[in-house]
Write a structure and sequence with these properties.
globular; 28% helix; seven-stranded mixed β-sheet; Aminopeptidase
Length: 202
């Protein structure tokens, strides 16, 4: 597999189309509310990375991906937790992790660890859905910890128009160091060369 940074408007639009497809297939299905601009902000101003099964494959064949932004570029998606004691440029929010093929989500998560290391992150914040279904358990294997109580996602809803709740999770300190080290090891696997990674910030 290969991870590449999406920089052009076309690449980012393909990413968004695939993201929406993945969300609609996520068991119960979910979407942003009609008034939400959250996803558009992440897509336009965040660091967008896509996963491909084959090196050099065209954008239309991406099978997974994620977005990251530091808190000096964009604010947190939600008001909690309070992270004012940390340096905003070194705190990264991960969002829009998705996959359309088996293994792509796990590969994307590992690639995000490599990205976090390259950007010298001191903390990573994520907001996975916890109700009506629990998608937060995916992050437990990477040692993310609850940062506060679950909060309602005012930007999203199920396909039936029901509420979504998210669980703020954070990774920092020694657990973050272990996560970053695990991601960095991906760069040295024989089938994933460093040329497959463009880890530069926007």
């Amino acid at each position: 597999m290969e991870i590449r940074k999406m920089t052009s408007d076309f690449e980012r639009q393909v990413f968004n189309d695939c993201l929406l497809k993945a969300r609609s297939q996520k068991g119960f299905g979910f979407r942003e509310t009609p008034r939400s601009c959250l996803g558009a902000s992440h897509l336009k101003f965040g660091n967008v990375y896509a996963v491909f099964e084959d090196k050099g494959a065209p954008p239309e064949s991406m099978v997974g991906g994620f977005i990251m932004h530091d808190l000096a570029s964009l604010p947190q998606s939600f008001g909690e937790p309070s992270l004012g004691h940390l340096t905003p440029s070194l705190v990264f929010e991960g969002s829009d992790l998705w996959s359309l093929s088996k293994g792509a989500g796990y590969f994307a998560a590992r690639a995000s660890a490599a990205v976090a290391g390259a950007l010298r992150a001191e903390a990573i914040l994520v907001y996975p859905i916890v109700r009506p279904v629990d998608l937060a358990s995916f992050y437990s294997r990477f040692n993310f910890e609850p940062a506060c109580e679950p909060i309602r996602n005012q930007y999203g809803e199920t396909l039936d128009g029901e509420e979504l709740w998210v669980q703020p999770l954070i990774l920092q300190g020694q657990r973050l160091a272990e996560f970053v080290r695990w991601g960095a090891e991906l760069l040295y696997q024989p089938n994933v060369g460093q040329e497959s990674f463009d880890l530069r910030a926007s």
